């Protein structure tokens, strides 16, 4: 199954926001690289026809990434459209007719999770599921019980090898680059363990609010929206052991082992916050206790990481938009008795640009006894020709490469970790917009030495230039 490339792409939700902002630009990019030559069948209940879908796709490309005339001509020739109710078998029989001689379609469900079961059942009844793959968007449930139920629905119709659970964060090049950096550089491995690492922290900050998505966000919150999925993926890339082989299952085995080694999150190791003004957002309940900020502490009870705390922080309306990892090393003994060295550290900046920095202690200017910390920095902005996440993950799904997709056991282990606090009534503290969260973020969820405070992209560029000048 994994070696067979999909010979058609069917995407449900073709008239939706995700298709408009992400999917059509990804499809054009795939065509430009020669990675898409098969029919693309959009499905929705909008009362549209094919000409309207083509017009929507063209408008999407003009506003999100730019229209390439040659690629657009090819894409518009590949587009098909089926309009109908997902509850009607006739809709899926029309999809089967559009598939024609296709034997290995990929069905991409860019639709709300509440519709998954209905669509999967109809795919089976209509014969569309035979030889097919199914690609679904997060969230994969809203807690452990619902995740298990979703997996039951999917596995009743498709083998695990044909199920591709998208977390677009894994399609980001810098996220995967952490694995390459760790295991392809001989100088990293000797110190990336409990003997030298004092703590690890992961920050995902956004300097904006819910942007008109209050009704969605008020059913989700920061833990469900980004921590349980995106940031746990980052955590696994930082903490996993080298896979014994480079195939997708060996890689995913190591990630699951990391999650299995993490005890369930306790309420004492979590602080939740809500920015002032959130309750005024459209669609938000007047007395909502949903968190727009969360900071937590985890332990990984493995041989490599026993005793090393991992801290994760994510929130909206923080000072910058940035995702960054900071691994602080244990302090070395002092060379000069009067001077206590600062901790060395390894800093990964995932977005908006990619940076790898090593914090080192050197002699301070004008002194032979005092020290200062400087960074050795490697930084780069994304090139225009680099794959965007959706291009990479849709291409991988159609090729049958599961490396960047969440497996059933991974999803359930991730929910197991956060499930206890999702069910607990932990307090939600208020914080001012553009601050680093509520004041109640105390010692239990603060790394030794404090949280690293990422800087803006412009400040990061200045910092890199300043270090280069030194």
Describe this structure as you would to a colleague.
The chain has 470 residues and is an alpha/beta fold. It is built from 13 helices and 15 strands. α9 (221-239) packs across α10 and α10 packs parallel to α12.
Oligomeric assembly: single chain
**Count of helical stretches:** 13
Low-confidence stretches: none
- Count of beta strands: 15
Fraction in beta strands:
15-25%
- Biggest sheet strand order reads 14-13-12-11-7-10-9-8-15
Helix content: 25-40%
Helix and strand element order: EHEHHEHEHEHEHEHHHEEEEEEEHHEH
Determine Rg (CA atoms, Å).
Answer: 24 Å
Question: How can the largest sheet be summarized?
Answer: 9 strands, mixed
* General form: globular
- The mean pLDDT is 93
Q: What is the distance, rounded to the nearest whole angstrom, between the alpha carbons of the first and last residues? A: 54 Å
Main structural class: alpha/beta
List keywords for this structure.
21% strand; alpha/beta; 470 residues; nine-stranded mixed β-sheet
What's this entry about, in short?
This protein is of the alpha/beta class. The chain has helices at about 15-30, 50-65, 70-80, 90-100, 115-125, 145-155, 175-185, 215, 220-240, 250-260, 390-400, 410-425, 455-470, and strands spanning about 10, 40-45, 80-85, 105-110, 135, 165, 195-205, 270-275, 295-300, 310-315, 320-330, 345-350, 355-365, 370-380, 430. The chain is globular.
